[in-house]
Automatic annotation (TrEMBL):
One of its GO terms (cellular component) is cytoplasm. Its main location: cytoplasm. Homodimer. This is Phosphoribosyl-AMP cyclohydrolase. Keywords: Amino-acid biosynthesis, Cytoplasm, Histidine biosynthesis, Hydrolase, Magnesium, Metal-binding, Zinc. Mg(2+) binds at residues 94, 96, 98. It is found in: Cytoplasm. InterPro entries: PRA-CH, PRib_AMP_CycHydrolase_dom, PRib_AMP_CycHydrolase_sf. It comes from Candidatus Endolissoclinum faulkneri L2. PANTHER family: HISTIDINE BIOSYNTHESIS BIFUNCTIONAL PROTEIN, HISTIDINE BIOSYNTHESIS BIFUNCTIONAL PROTEIN HIS7. Pathway: Amino-acid biosynthesis; L-histidine biosynthesis; L-histidine from 5-phospho-alpha-D-ribose 1-diphosphate: step 3/9; Amino-acid biosynthesis; L-histidine biosynthesis; L-histidine from 5-phospho-alpha-D-ribose 1-diphosphate: step 2/9. One of its GO terms (biological process) is L-histidine biosynthetic process. Signal peptide: none annotated. Residues 47-121 form the Phosphoribosyl-AMP cyclohydrolase domain.
């Protein structure tokens, strides 16, 4: 990976950030910012991941989604091993600039490492024994 980074503006005034046109993502104390990922064509929620400044920089510079793995403590290119890459078409920040929204073209069978289009392939349902999870999406992108 290249050692290029994007310089982000610093903005600690949350009220100014809400109306500002200055790109100043607010990374938390652990140096991470949550990234919500939607399919650009369908607006389907694909996944949530974490980014550090380098992952966000690489995403901006390459238009390929990069994330930070908290368990492995390193940056990963989405689809690097599976081929299921995410081509970033648009990047947005929420009003507080503390959450990233990526609109992507999902290449391959899906965003989930288990083979589903979305990592959110189950819903919570009431069951006789309490709460349970029900699969609402088949593997390889088909809705149940």
């Amino acid at each position: 990976m290249n050692d290029f980074t994007v310089k982000f503006a610093k903005s600690r005034d949350n009220n100014k950030a809400k109306e500002s046109s200055k790109f100043a993502p607010e990374f938390k104390m652990d140096g991470l910012i949550p990234a919500i990922v939607l399919d650009v064509k369908t607006n389907k929620l694909l996944m949530m991941a974490w980014m550090d400044t380098r992952a966000l920089s690489l995403t901006i510079l390459t238009s390929n989604a990069h994330y930070y793995s908290r368990s492995r403590k390193k940056i990963w290119l989405k689809g690097e091993s599976s081929g299921h890459i995410q081509l970033v078409k648009e990047i947005r920040l929420d009003c507080d600039q503390d959450t990233v929204l990526l609109l992507v073209e999902q290449v391959g069978s899906g965003a989930c490492h288990l083979g589903y289009l979305s990592c959110f392939y189950r819903k919570v349902v009431r069951a006789d024994s309490g709460l349970a999870l029900e699969v609402v999406e088949n593997r390889n992108t088909t809705r149940v």
